[in-house]
Design brief:
The complex is a heterotrimer. By secondary structure, chain A is an alpha+beta fold. Chain A has 21 helices and 22 strands. Chain B has one domain: Rossmann fold (3-Layer(aba) Sandwich). Chain B has a three-stranded parallel sheet with strand order 1-2-3. The radius of gyration of chain B is 13 Å and the shape is globular. In chain B, α3 links the parallel β1 and β2. Chain C has a single domain, classed as CheA-289, Domain 4 (OB fold (Dihydrolipoamide Acetyltransferase, E2P), Beta Barrel), CATH 2.40.50. In chain C, the strands form two sheets. Chain C has a six-stranded mixed sheet. Chain C is globular and about 50 Å long. Chains in contact: A-B, A-C.
């Protein structure tokens, strides 16, 4: 095995830096030479040298695998090519973009030289791309220049039609003609209100007659800045539309001005500051309480009012920042139709995908993490949920299967559902795989949590097994793991022959939550309020032991208890009364047994990332106002712990 | 080259466009069942054409296969993000192109996975 | 760690932070130490590995704390005024090392450091990068990765 010789590497890099410097110098020299020169007077020799230098930079950057530099150089090259070919004008704004590109290149190379992470130059790259390719996309022109002014600027609109094509007139034909007449600054395709397409050319020419001559070929023109109007009366039906084109475009270009690109890192910083403010205010409140008796009553009341006001304002600030991070769920849902279509074809099934609630907003961080899990569930719905056309027809179902992907906000949560009308999960087959588990409750209903436990256990099923048992395939452990990590819950409902629905509930906001503070022995924990159904007082004597569980009679049923002191191996003294925090509802209700519940407060959730402290049952930590660090309990994991307690003396899983 | 490969599909007609703008124009005039889109075009980058198409309801469901050269900076993710239905990297064998086009046009139950 | 066997190269020295655990001097490269602080209280994390004392809140971050006494097989001691937490960098992670006391900054020449060998009797030998002999003193150079990642040889 040959190792990379570090000495060879470093001299290689030295060569690169030296050569890059030379080319960068040339680039700057050229750009300087073009500065202030009118677009029409730009020397093609200078352009040529610029182009070559960028081309070289691209090549050598590729050789040393400095990808960011390669990319920048490539886009600069493309932009310069477009300028050389006359498609794009070397006007002040475009040169500005090129200069930004050169700066970015230099920054990236310098960073590499200093062993640092190269800065992200996305904005510059985007600008360079817009420069190189005629502004296109959704009909919003992105030319850096202001609308053409003066009598030399025109806007020519070409509306293609079958008739024109039959005559041999196509958009490229028109473009070629316009190029002969003058200089094309940009071309923008636009979809008109009636669904037809029009191409808008920003063109500079002195030859207005030539433009007029194009009108029989479907070209209408107007001085730049004015809405185009048909010059002659002859008209295919789509002539009405061009006037809406430029206006629509102007409206569209107004909109981008109302938006700002925000670096996600900066938002995170802001969130952190907001979170710190929450904690500081909390400490202030504590201090206030301590000094109450030293302060005259009226002043104290004022202090309290200010404190309350600050609490409200901080909450608004926090919510406001969170909302900046909210993006529509549609971002993720958008990809699904393609995935479904591909998968359906692969497996010979026919599947319709319905999407609802695309505008439901969710924190960007959450949606990025959820992309894979949702993809998994959708893929599984197609692969294992929906039956083949034959089976569906045989079962009296419509040949096309339906998968419904929906998102909605309910209170403080976002609910995402993936539902299919397929065969449902084959519970018998799953039961065979995990005989120790009982998926039915006392009254025969499906215990969804047990089912999920089984299918989400890592290593549960390989692909072909999943095919056989029509259960869900690989990846469910990742799905549940991610959902848990984000503080959410996963639920499933399935019926043989009817279909399966997976429901993911996620907290809307991530960082600050309401929590109940509880003491166990000398340790303190926080339990997220949203998971808590009720807090009850418990007489330890009233607990029944059944096999390895402790049960409490609660609202007519037996509520299993998780004794945190035992689970966490904390020494406690015997107390006459304990508290139980009831989490979950109905069949999945569990009581967390603690010594004492000490009240509730808002806490800033900090994640416990390090593997050393990654323990089941703990999902994060928070600093209480008084500087104490307190662990946040993972209610879902603790509840699972109860269900996983083996019966009849098997090895404990806790 | 693409034309040569696709010429073998006897039951499929195709219309060729030599630039991004022309591609958009062609789509406006001739309804098609799918598009094979090369990213490296002289006037518009293929992804921008694709984004333009996907942003309008009438082209949203149109199957689009994207052709790209290896080393083109448009990453697979970017390509799918822009709305591609399928993605092929040059160089590829003509028969591969043909079978992939078939997939998008009409699914066969027992096809091989690319 | 740099290769230090070539004696024709000029003597290379590096700066270390020295600290004490159960009477012995240990050292880590100062550039690996993010900061040092006094510590009054560590929040225990239930069911964590035995040498993990728990977590603390340090400079806005949750930092896991490894009790070096426990790690090296000594009995735990109470935290007092002299106890120090060294927050070190390990890849992208920040880990806190709990030491009885902090001693000094010291520059040590690479040539003064020998590989650990079998001479080290106690458990800490498994976590060492080297042994530095400075006149009369012996300072054990810690390998942070071993301290953080290796599974304990003997169950605590």
């Amino acid at each position: 095995m040959t190792e990379r010789d570090p000495r060879f590497e470093s001299s290689f890099m030295d060569d690169y830096f030296a050569e890059a410097d030379e080319h960068l110098l040339a680039v700057r020299r050229c750009l300087l030479a073009l500065d202030g020169v009118r677009a029409a007077d730009v020397s093609s020799a200078v352009l040529e040298e610029l182009f070559r230098s960028c081309h070289s930079l691209k090549g050598i950057s590729a050789m040393v695998e400095l990808r960011e530099a390669e990319l920048l150089a490539h886009h600069m090259e493309s932009g310069l090519r477009a300028i050389r070919q006359g498609e794009v004008a070397p006007d002040a704004a475009n040169l500005e973009t090129l200069l930004a590109g050169a700066n970015a290149l230099e920054a990236v190379i310098v960073a590499r030289r200093q062993g640092q992470v190269p800065p992200s130059e996305e904005a510059t790259i985007a600008a360079l791309r817009r420069l190189a390719i005629s502004p296109a996309g959704t009909g919003t022109p992105v030319t850096a220049t202001a609308p053409l002014d003066g009598p030399r600027g025109w806007r020519a609109t070409f509306v293609p039609s079958a008739a024109l094509v039959a005559r041999g007139i196509k958009v490229d034909t028109i473009r070629a003609r316009l190029l002969e007449v003058g200089k094309i600054l940009s071309v923008t395709p636009n979809v008109q209100a009636n669904g037809g397409i029009a191409f808008e050319f920003d063109i500079q020419t002195e030859d207005e007659a030539a433009l007029a001559a194009l009108s029989p070929d479907g070209v209408f023109y107007a001085p730049a800045g004015e809405p185009a109007a048909p010059v002659t009366a002859e008209a295919p039906a789509s002539i009405d539309e061009p006037s809406s084109g430029p206006r629509a475009r102007e409206v569209a270009s107004a909109a981008p001005g109302n938006f700002v690109r925000v670096d996600l890192g900066r938002l995170d910083d802001l969130m952190r500051v907001a979170g710190d403010l929450v904690v500081t205010r909390s400490r202030l409140e504590d201090t206030l309480r301590r000094v109450e008796r030293h302060v005259p009553a009226r002043e104290f009341r004022l202090l309290q009012e200010h404190d309350s006001l600050m609490e409200r304002q901080l909450r608004d600030l926090r919510d406001g920042i969170m909302r900046v991070r909210l993006v529509p769920v549609g971002e993720v849902f958008r990809r699904m139709p393609f995935v479904v279509r591909d998968l359906a074809r692969d497996s010979g099934k026919r599947v319709q995908l319905e999407i609802a609630g695309q505008s439901t907003e969710i924190d960007k961080f959450l949606i990025e993490r959820m992309m894979d899990p949702i993809l998994h569930l959708v893929r599984n719905a197609v692969g294992h949920g929906i039956e083949t056309v034959e089976r569906r027809v045989a079962a009296g179902k419509p040949p096309d299967g339906t998968i419904r992907l929906s998102a909605s906000t309910v209170g403080e949560s976002v609910i995402i559902e993936i539902a299919d009308d397929g065969a449902g999960i084959d519970l018998e087959a799953i039961a065979q795989r995990a005989p120790a588990k009982d998926m039915r409750t006392e009254d025969g209903a499906l215990d969804a949590r047990v089912l999920l436990d089984i299918i989400c256990a890592s290593g549960f099923s390989t692909r072909d097994e999943a095919d056989r048992i029509s259960g869900r395939g690989v990846g469910m452990d990742v799905v549940r793991g991610t959902v848990d990590e984000l503080g959410g819950t996963l639920d499933v409902d399935t019926e043989r022959g009817r279909g399966t629905t997976f429901t993911i509930t996620l907290p809307l906001t991530l960082a600050v939550i309401d929590a109940i503070i509880a003491h166990v022995g000398d340790q303190t924990f926080a339990v997220p309020q949203s998971a808590i159904h009720e807090v009850i007082e418990v007489d330890p004597g009233g607990l029944r032991a059944l096999e390895r569980n402790e049960l409490l009679t609660y609202r007519g049923r037996a509520l299993p208890m998780v004794r945190l002191s035992r689970l966490f191996r904390i020494n406690t003294t015997t107390r006459p009364r304990l508290h139980a925090i009831v989490v979950g509802t109905g069949l999945s209700a569990v009581g967390l047994l603690v010594d004492r519940v000490a009240g509730h407060r808002e806490i800033v959730v900090k994640s416990i990332g390090d593997p050393l402290i990654h323990v089941e049952g703990v999902s994060g930590a928070t600093e209480l106002g008084d500087g104490r660090l307190v662990l946040i309990l993972d209610v879902a994991a603790l509840s699972r712990n109860v269900r996983e307690r083996p019966r009849s003396g098997e090895r404990a899983s806790a | 080259m693409v034309r040569a490969a696709l010429g073998n599909l006897t039951d499929v007609g195709f219309i060729e466009a030599s630039s991004g703008l022309q591609a958009i124009e062609t789509l406006a005039i001739h309804p098609v069942r799918m598009v094979v889109l090369d990213l490296n075009m002289p006037d518009m980058h293929g992804l921008d054409v694709l984004r333009f198409l996907r942003s309008h309801s009438q082209y949203r469901d149109l199957p689009v296969m994207v052709l790209t050269t290896r080393g083109d900076e448009a990453s697979r993710e970017e390509v799918f993000e822009a709305g591609a239905s399928s993605y092929l990297t040059k160089p590829f064998s003509p028969s591969f192109l043909v079978s992939s086009v078939r997939q998008l046009l009409d699914p066969q139950p027992d096809r091989q996975t690319p | 760690m740099t290769d230090k066997s070539n004696s024709t190269e000029p003597a290379k020295t590096q700066t270390y932070i020295l600290f004490g655990v159960a009477g012995t001097s240990y050292a880590v490269l100062s550039r690996q130490v993010q900061h040092m602080e006094m510590v009054e209280q560590v929040t225990p994390v239930p069911n964590a590995p035995p040498f993990v004392e728990g977590v603390v809140f340090s400079r806005g971050q949750i930092v896991p704390v490894i009790n070096l006494r426990a790690r090296f097989g000594f009995e735990r001691a109470r935290l007092n005024q002299r106890t120090r937490l060294l927050v070190v960098q390990h890849g992208t992670r920040s880990i806190g090392l709990l030491a009885d006391e902090a001693r000094e900054f010291l520059t040590i020449a690479d040539t003064s450091i020998q590989p650990p060998g079998d001479a080290i009797g106690n458990l800490s030998g498994n976590y060492l990068d080297g042994v530095a002999t400075l006149g009369e003193r012996i300072v054990l150079i810690l390998n942070i990765r071993e301290v953080v990642e290796s599974t304990p040889i003997a169950a605590a």
